[in-house]
Amino acid sequence: MTQSPHTAAQSANGQTATGQTVGDRSADQPPVMIRLEELTKRFPGAKRNAVESLTLDIHEGEIVVLVGPSGCGKTTTMKMINRIIEPSSGRIILNGQDVTTTDADTLRRKIGYVIQQTGLFPHMTIGENIATVPKLLGWDSARVRARVDELLTMVNMDPDEYRGRYPKQLSGGQQQRVGVARALGADPEVMLMDEPFGAIDPITRDRLQNEFLRLQSEVRKTIVFVTHDIDEAIKMGDRIAILQEGSRIAQYDTPERILSDPANDFVKDFIGAGASLKRLNLSRVSDIECGTWPTVRASDAHEVAHRMLADSDRSAVLVLDDAGRPVRWVSADHLRRGADAPLDQIGSVPQAVVQPRATLSDALNELVAARYAVTVVVDDQGRYQGVLDFDQLNDAIRSMRSAAVAAARTEFADEEGPS
Predict the structure, then answer these.
(1) What's the CATH code, domain 5-110+189-272?
(2) What are residue 236's phi and psi, to 5 degrees?
(3) Residue 380's pLDDT is what?
């Protein structure tokens, strides 16, 4: 019997025909860090189970995103992993150990936890918040201080500036960074993240997502990430579990396979329209060769900027500071009106800026509002790397579409076999 594409995708992941289970590790996969076996939860007085016999393997060092409609049980499933919610039945295996009946407080100290509202203690400083779990584990004060400073630096917050502040003195995005730092306090193997960026404005959310992916590339934690947003799931997840009511798995697969080969109509409907645009969340700015733009240094004379404009077809030059960071767009009109001012004190501040790990979707969002129809690409230190424009993104979309069509044809040919 010929397998359909979605059945083949499920079989590759060890799922049953119903999509309920995920089984054995393949040779090229990392070991299983979290195994949920027949996990079930029924709340008192409820007529049906909130989570119904869920079996799922989560591999070491991967971000697995639980996504689905409201009420499908994704948050309940995640909270059972650290037993904030106790399962009615089933087992939780953490790094080979059954933790279903071990001491819950001890278990939670081994697992980092980040929530939408950050959960920071308002009466404690940022440093004290981050130090919470290390202190509970009995770390000495010198080790705690070093870890606090290390984590603040890791989330791009100057320890000397932020260590002694209180949560109310921070922006929402800064509080969320501290929430991530606190979850990493005792260097846990596993992190649980419940809609961690859901309460933040879209621009800050995109940048925090990118910052977190940068951090994950360094620390390689095993992460269970809950969201209701399929676009966020595609961007953040190494694997995505799309859940139906009762945490029944509709599909558990890579973002690429879910977009190109949805398992059933429920998955298709949940993905929604615009799958081609959603593919922009699968590729990074680093996958595209940046374009060039005329640049000058802030210390250059106006004549240099005039000459750069005259020699190019661009309407403005990009002014870089001594470290190579973009600080101003300067046009001929800016030069005329600010004839006596340094280049870094005239013109407009670049707003559309992305780092190489940003997705092409992030770049497109920035481009929509960009002053000169380009987004500036900078490295982790904010130094200028190049620019992206709409033509480059269009080329990338066409390439991804062609690759998806070619892959689908190859898979179909493999399934049909020789005639």
Answers:
(1) 3.40.50.300
(2) -90, -25
(3) 82
